[in-house]
Amino acid sequence: MKEQFLTPKPGNSYEEIKRELKKLEQLMTRQHQSQKPIMSVDECSELLGLSVSYVYRLTSEKRIPHYKPYGKKLYFRRDEIIEWALSNKVTPDGEIADRVRTHARRARRGV
Fold first, then answer.
1. Which pairing describes strands 76-77 and 38-39: parallel, antiparallel, or unpaired?
2. Is 22 domain-assigned?
3. Which listed residue, 7, 34, 61, 86, has the most CB atoms within 10 A of its CB?
4. b/e string for 80-96 if b means 16 or more Cβ within 10 A?
5. Beta partners for 39?
6. Is 101 among the domain residues?
7. Structural domains of the chain, count
8. Which of the four pLDDT bands, split at 50, 70 and 90, describes residue 60?
């Protein structure tokens, strides 16, 4: 079997190829992390778009579901964090108005 070497396309340098490979590696790492059911503080903060210090604050105030085996490192379950993040839905005014109209119609009909 012949050894094959990457040869850059015209206009591409080896440094550009290295940068592209590094980007691909980072994307694959992120994709793998997004599939993990258990997350670290760093991964949780990235998922929520919050700072690590704020995630620690939420845990110390017991406002976010977390696990602390042996009283040391913090862990989070991805599904619980997503559920927590979506737990306080703010209902749009239009949806509230629709509910009021529906309720008023039913009340007039005596249903």
1. antiparallel
2. no
3. 34
4. ebeebeeeeeeeeeeee
5. 76
6. yes
7. 1
8. very high
Q: How far apart are the C-alpha atoms of 90 and 96, rounded to whole Å?
A: 10
**Model-level pTM?**
0.59
Single-letter amino acid, residue 92: P
Q: What does the pLDDT average to over 78-95?
A: 90
**Residue 28 domain flag:** no
Q: What is the pLDDT of residue 78?
A: 94
Rounded distance between C-alpha atoms, residue 63 and residue 105, angstroms = 40
Contact 57, 68 (CB under 8 A): no
Domain span holding position 88: 36-109
Report residue 57 CA to chain centroid gap: 18
Residue whose pair of structure tokens reads 């990235």 in the numeric block: 46
What is the C-alpha to C-alpha distance for residues 52 and 49, in angstroms, rounded to an integer? 9
CATH of the domain at 72: 1.10.1660
Q: Does residue 89 belong to any structural domain of this protein? A: yes
Give the integer Cα–Cα distance in Å for 42 and 95: 36
User: Nearest 5 degrees, angle CA 86-CA 26-CA 19?
Assistant: 145
